[in-house]
C-alpha cells in the first residue's frame, strides 16, 4: 500500500482566551489558572456531536500550533538543565506536524461554545478534535517519566522535599518538584503595580517560571546578573536571589534604559509612559 504524502485536516473550531502569545500560556494545563472558550463552527451538525459530553469533567483537546512555522529535531525544554532533548521526547510545539494535545477542565456547554478552565492554549488556536478524558484508562501515574527522572537525580535534592511540599498546587507524582518562590514586600508591590497599569499578570508569570528552577536558561529567559539572577518577562526585568532551594524575588524593573524612556516623552502617544511612571515611583 502506498504511503500518503499529505493528510487533510479541517479545524472544527477556535479557542478564545486572554492569552495572546506563547510566553503568556502555561506550559501544562495543570499549571494554568486561565479560562477560555472553544467555539465550534456552525453548519456542521456539531450540536449533535456535543451531546452527552457535558457529563465529563475533563476533555482532550487536539489542536494545531498555528504560531509555529518550522520544526526542530532538538529542543531545549523549560525543565531541562542538562541540554537539548529530541523533540519527540518533549511536549515542545516545534514539531514536524505541529499537533498539540491538552486535557482541560470542562465547565459547561452553551450551544456550540465550550467553557473550559486550566487552558494552556493561546487565543486563536485552531481546534481539530475533542474527546472525553477517561480517568481509568487515560491516567497512568506509575509510568516512568524518562529524562525528567534523570533531571531529578542530577539535582541536589537535600532539602527539596520539605520545601516543595509548601508550594501550592504541586503534584506528588512529579519527579522534579517545584522550587519555593517568595517575594520581598517591594517586589510584590512592584508586580502588583505593573499588573494594575498594564494587565500583565506579572506576579503569576514570575512564580510559574521560577518554580521550574532558577538556573540560567535561554528558553525561560533567565541569566546571571552580578551576584544574583535576572528573569525577563516581556519588557520587565525581575531580579532574584537563590538560597538553598528557595528563590527570593528581590525587585522588578523596567527593561528600557532611562534615555529611551526620556526620549519617548517627546512622542505624541508616548508608548513608554508606563515605564517612566514606574521609574518615577521607584527611582
Order of strands across the main sheet: 1-2-7-6-3-8
Mean of the pLDDT scores?
Answer: 83
Shape: globular
Approximate strand percentage: 25-35%
Helix content: 10-25%
Helix and strand pattern: EEHEEEEEEHHHEHHEEEEHH
Structural class: alpha+beta
Number of strands: 13
Main beta-sheet annotation: 6 strands, antiparallel, barrel
Low-confidence stretches: 156-170
Tally of alpha and pi helices: 8
Radius of gyration: 21 Å
**Termini separation:** 71 Å
Describe this structure in words.
The chain is an alpha+beta fold. 21% of the residues lie in helices and 27% in strands. It has eight helices and 13 strands. It has helices at 46-49, 135-138, 147-154, 160-164, 185-198, 202-210, 258-264, 273-281; strands at 13-17, 35-40, 58-64, 74-75, 85-86, 99-110, 113-117, 126-132, 180-183, 222-225, 228-233, 236-243, 246-254. The protein has a six-stranded antiparallel β-barrel. Strands 9-13-12-11-10 form a five-stranded mixed beta sheet. A two-stranded antiparallel sheet has the order 4-5. Helix 7 packs across helix 8 (273-281).
Kindly summarize this structure in a few lines:
With 283 residues, the chain is of the alpha+beta class. The chain contains 8 helices and 13 strands.
List the helices and strands and how they pair.
Elements: E1 13-17, E2 35-40, H1 46-49, E3 58-64, E4 74-75, E5 85-86, E6 99-110, E7 113-117, E8 126-132, H2 135-138, H3 147-154, H4 160-164, E9 180-183, H5 185-198, H6 202-210, E10 222-225, E11 228-233, E12 236-243, E13 246-254, H7 258-264, H8 273-281
Parallel strand pairs: 9-13
Antiparallel strand pairs: 1-2, 1-8, 2-7, 3-6, 3-8, 4-5, 6-7, 10-11, 11-12, 12-13
Helix pairs in contact: 7-8
Amino acid at each position: 500500500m502506498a504511503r500518503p504524502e499529505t493528510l487533510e485536516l479541517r479545524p472544527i473550531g477556535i479557542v478564545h482566551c486572554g492569552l495572546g502569545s506563547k510566553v503568556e500560556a502555561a506550559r501544562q494545563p495543570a499549571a494554568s489558572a486561565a479560562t477560555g472558550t472553544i467555539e465550534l463552527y456552525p453548519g456542521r451538525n456539531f450540536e449533535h456531536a456535543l451531546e452527552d459530553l457535558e457529563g465529563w469533567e475533563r476533555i482532550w483537546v487536539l489542536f494545531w500550533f498555528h504560531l509555529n512555522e518550522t520544526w526542530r529535531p532538538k529542543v531545549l525544554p523549560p525543565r531541562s538543565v542538562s541540554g537539548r532533548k529530541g523533540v519527540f521526547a518533549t511536549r515542545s510545539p516545534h514539531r514536524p506536524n505541529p499537533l498539540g494535545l491538552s486535557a482541560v477542565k470542562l465547565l459547561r456547554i452553551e450551544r456550540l461554545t465550550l467553557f473550559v478552565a486550566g487552558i494552556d492554549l493561546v487565543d486563536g488556536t485552531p481546534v481539530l478534535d475533542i474527546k472525553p478524558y477517561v480517568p481509568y484508562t487515560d491516567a497512568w501515574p506509575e509510568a516512568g517519566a524518562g529524562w525528567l527522572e534523570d533531571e531529578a537525580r542530577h539535582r541536589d535534592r537535600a532539602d527539596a522535599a520539605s520545601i516543595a511540599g509548601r508550594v501550592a498546587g504541586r503534584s506528588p507524582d512529579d519527579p522534579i518538584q517545584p522550587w519555593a518562590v517568595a517575594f520581598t514586600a517591594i517586589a510584590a508591590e512592584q508586580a502588583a503595580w505593573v499588573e494594575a497599569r498594564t494587565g500583565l499578570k506579572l506576579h503569576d508569570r514570575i512564580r510559574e517560571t521560577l518554580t521550574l528552577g532558577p538556573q540560567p536558561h535561554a528558553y525561560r529567559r533567565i541569566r546571571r546578573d552580578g551576584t544574583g539572577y535576572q528573569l525577563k518577562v516581556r519588557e520587565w526585568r525581575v531580579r532574584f536571589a537563590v538560597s538553598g532551594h528557595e528563590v527570593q524575588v528581590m525587585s522588578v524593573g523596567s527593561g528600557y534604559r532611562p534615555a529611551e524612556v526620556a526620549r519617548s516623552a517627546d512622542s505624541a502617544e508616548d508608548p513608554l509612559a508606563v515605564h517612566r511612571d514606574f521609574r518615577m515611583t521607584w527611582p
